[in-house]
């Protein structure tokens, strides 16, 4: 923010930028392409009654010699997307999946320095300085972990933080990369958005970019922060500027700028929904 502007004007400008837009809708959650999932491990499910000890409590077990693979790929600055991915990975591993996690690194010299430390040194300038790049849908240099460069996964799940309504620059850059093309082409994928308030444009964009790379979109969900529009915005500035959640900012009582307490249950339910779909599709293909 320019130093000669009063604080009220600054917050008013940001509030206007982040005002809700009409027309946003949640991505479809039930997709007929569940039945077209990768067939590499379709015959690995057996009923609990016919399986050795260690079968999953839902009555299904996966042969450890041919575990289906799941990749959770995401970008995170405040570690919120990582928390969701870890909660999902815990459930999927318990259900017998070989789960890999891959955190995209933001290395572009135009913007990476500001995100190389936490908290931000110049919170208003650093945050609002990303607005032009988001408006024009910019991409930049990133480092993609080996897990997301190669591998024959049965499902890819993309974790996308929301930056000014849209996917972050690192996630957009990944989804437009040649590596994403090789990873997603002909494969089912899902997505989750992490957001302060508005998530539908982000999730819809991830679906569009992934589908353009040849992927088959299956399902999506979002994880939001507590608080209304203004208080959650103040909490965001406070957290990014101080590096911790505080009770007040500029004299206003604010909520924590982090995932809601029930995010683990929500993430685990989403992971179970994805696993159920994978297993049901294999059962349908084997009958």
Question: Could you give a short description of this structure?
Answer:
The chain has 287 residues and is of the alpha/beta class. The chain is built from nine helices and twelve strands.
SSE diagram, text form:
Layout: H1 7-17, E1 45-47, E2 60-62, E3 69-74, H2 80-94, E4 98-103, E5 105-106, H3 123-128, H4 131-135, E6 142-143, E7 155-163, E8 166-167, H5 169-175, H6 178-184, E9 188-195, H7 200-212, E10 216-224, H8 229-242, E11 248-249, E12 252-253, H9 263-286
Parallel strand pairs: 3-4, 3-7, 7-9, 9-10
Antiparallel strand pairs: 1-2, 5-6, 7-8, 11-12
Helix pairs in contact: 2-9
Which descriptors apply to this entry?
Rossmann fold, alpha/beta, 287 residues, 2 domains, single chain
Number of domains: 2
Low-confidence stretches: 1-64
Query: How large is the share of residues in beta strands?
Result: 15-25%
The CATH level-2 architecture of the largest domain is identified as 3-Layer(aba) Sandwich
Category from helices, strands and their pairing = alpha/beta
- Please compute the radius of gyration using only Cα atoms: 20 Å
Assign the CATH topology of the largest domain.
Rossmann fold
Overall average residue pLDDT: 83
CATH level-1 class of the largest domain:
Alpha Beta
Largest sheet: 6 strands, mixed
What does this structure look like?
The chain is α/β, with parallel strands linked by helices and 287 residues long. Helix 2 (80-94) packs across helix 9. It folds into two domains: 28-225 and 261-286, Flavodoxin domain (Rossmann fold, 3-Layer(aba) Sandwich); 229-259, no CATH class. The longest helix has 24 residues, at 263-286. The chain has helices spanning 7-17, 80-94, 123-128, 131-135, 169-175, 178-184, 200-212, 229-242, 263-286, and strands at residues 45-47, 60-62, 69-74, 98-103, 105-106, 142-143, 155-163, 166-167, 188-195, 216-224, 248-249, 252-253. Helix 2 (80-94) links the parallel strand 3 and strand 4 (98-103). The chain is globular and about 65 Å long. Strands 3, 4, 7, 8, 9 and 10 form a six-stranded mixed sheet that branches. It is built from nine helices and twelve strands.
């Amino acid at each position: 923010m320019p130093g000669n502007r009063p604080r009220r004007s600054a917050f008013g400008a940001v509030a206007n930028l982040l005002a809700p837009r009409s027309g946003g809708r949640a991505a479809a959650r039930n997709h007929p392409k569940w039945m077209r999932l990768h067939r590499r491990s379709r015959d690995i499910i057996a009923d609990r009654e016919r399986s050795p000890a260690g079968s999953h409590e839902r009555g299904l077990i996966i042969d450890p010699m041919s575990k289906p693979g799941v990749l959770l790929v995401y970008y995170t600055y405040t570690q919120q997307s990582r928390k969701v991915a870890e909660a999902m990975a815990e459930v999927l591993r318990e259900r017998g999946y070989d789960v890999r996690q891959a955190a995209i690194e933001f290395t572009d010299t135009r913007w990476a320095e500001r995100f190389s430390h936490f908290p931000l040194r110049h919170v208003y300038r650093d945050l609002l300085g990303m607005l032009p790049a988001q408006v024009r849908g910019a991409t930049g240099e990133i480092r993609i972990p080996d897990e997301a460069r190669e591998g024959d996964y049965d499902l890819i799940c993309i974790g996308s933080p929301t930056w000014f309504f849209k996917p972050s620059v690192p996630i957009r850059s990944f989804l437009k990369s040649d590596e994403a093309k090789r990873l997603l082409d002909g494969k089912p994928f899902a997505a989750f958005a992490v957001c302060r308030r508005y998530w539908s444009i982000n999730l819809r964009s991830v679906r569009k970019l992934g589908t353009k790379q040849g992927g088959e979109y299956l399902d999506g969900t979002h994880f939001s922060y507590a608080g209304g529009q203004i208080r959650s915005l103040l909490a965001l500035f406070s957290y990014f500027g101080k590096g911790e959640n505080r009770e007040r900012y500029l004299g206003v009582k604010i909520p924590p700028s982090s995932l809601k307490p029930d995010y683990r249950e929500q993430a685990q339910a989403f992971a179970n929904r994805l696993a159920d779909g994978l297993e049901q599709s294999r059962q349908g293909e084997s009958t």
